[in-house]
Amino acid sequence: MAVARSVKVEIPTNEAEEDEPSTLMGKWRKHYEEKKREGHQSRRMLYLCWALWVFQTPTQPYMAFAHIIPYIMYEFTDWTQYYVKVIYIFCVIQTLGNLVCVTLYSTRYVKTRDRPEAQEVRERWENAPDQFGLPMAEVLNGHLPDNGGIPWSYCDKCDMMKPPRAHHCKVCKACILKRDHHCFVIGTCVGHYNQRYFVVLTFYATIVGFGGVVLTACYLSMLYWPEAVWTDFLLPVAIYRGLFGAMKGYIAIMIVHLYTASFIGLFGLLYFTSQLIIVTKGVTLYELAKNVPIRNNKSTNANFVEVFGNFWFLNFIFPMTIMFPLENDGTTWKGIKLDHNSNYQGSDVE
Question: How far apart are CA 330 and CA 332, in angstroms?
């Protein structure tokens, strides 16, 4: 049986010989494309989102404890206010804690010299036989043997073999285990090791965001709305008047919170809903977007255990990384296959 081998030939090009754009719009477009390739847009988005977190984290709990809860719940007992504050701060801590965990837990597949799973491929490449073939005993019904898994593939960007369901991220410049998506709000990829924290983060972000909007709106409607004009609630006007003393500082901050908390709540609701759907199905956003024909034969509970570990619901109370770690290392996937009847070409283009 003849085997065709393809050779990748790189032809050097002289960028200096390329025609420079003659128009101002052409030069701007070229500059924009260069900055996009270098990742400047993703960094700007990351800085903007982290600035939002830095602003929102201290100011929203302070406004809730110092102004909103005591004013709205003045008719309730001190113990009732105390319990409301405890629940509120618990949700805030859960949001921030899982945000830190998503950022710190790396899900990259690092290139090393020791790749035992690719040893057979390396040996067959270095000691290639005269003819490639399989013993007839291993051929079942005219098909190659299938161990129920997904084969490894080669990443030409990282120059290494990458595990099943791992895909290259052009922003992180690395292969991500069970890559779900690159989240520009938190500035990292969501994958095998940090998806459990991302789901919980979006759950509590929804509660804190929309809860903050409701409480702040109630406070402003009771205290500030009778003497305000509608333009005061426009974001630029509130910032301008708050900075130059035409509006009380804490009122201006609360109006800003109406916008920032709404963004956090919408972000959390959108991603929490989508994450629940894909975790239930046992797939990833990347696989859905790229139409990867993943066929998952596991139950819904097994899919949640795969993401969160055993007793997965406890992760919504406290991170259970140490007590209930993940069952696999992100390189093997039992009960998951590729649908060989599809026309999927295995593209890994981001």
Answer: 6
